[in-house]
């Protein structure tokens, strides 16, 4: 099953490394940044909210008890370089996520040809 940013009520991938104290919740964003930037940002916001709810409700520890002492982070893996408006949005979202006790970061991983 392919997970994507469009599956807004699903946590795509969870990676826990208890030895390093890290629990990363990955979301995959395969959408291009075209004229519909605001729509793309809305989809991203909905997905971040899903992940935040998952973390705040303690579901990470319910499903991954070995993540107990780990620092959770939401990681957005984008296929395409985000425009300035998206980076600004991510920076604001990062502040909110950090305020809840978690981290938010992103990486651009271009498609392989």
Classify the helix fraction into a percent range: 25-40%
- Unreliable stretches (pLDDT < 50, length at least 5) are none
What would you call the shape?
globular
Strand fraction equals: 15-25%
Largest sheet: 4 strands, mixed
Radius of gyration: 14 Å
Distance between the termini: 22 Å
| Total E-strand runs | 4
Q: Determine the structural class based on helices, strands and strand pairing.
A: alpha/beta
Mean pLDDT, to the nearest integer, reads: 93
Q: Strand-and-helix sequence, N→C?
A: EEHHEHE
Treating each run of at least 4 consecutive H or I residues as one helix, how many helices? 3
Strand order of the largest sheet: 1-2-3-4
Polypeptide structure, described:
Strands 1-2-3-4 form a 4-stranded mixed β-sheet. With 113 residues, it is α/β, with parallel strands linked by helices. Helices cover 36% and strands 24% of the residues. It is globular. It is built from 3 helices and 4 strands, in the order ββααβαβ.
Summarize, please:
This protein has 113 residues and is an alpha/beta fold. It has three helices and four strands, in the order E-E-H-H-E-H-E.
Give the key terms:
alpha/beta; 113 residues
Topology:
Blueprint: E1 13-17, E2 22-29, H1 37-56, H2 59-63, E3 71-78, H3 84-99, E4 103-108
Parallel strand pairs: 2-3, 3-4
Antiparallel strand pairs: 1-2
Helix pairs in contact: 1-3
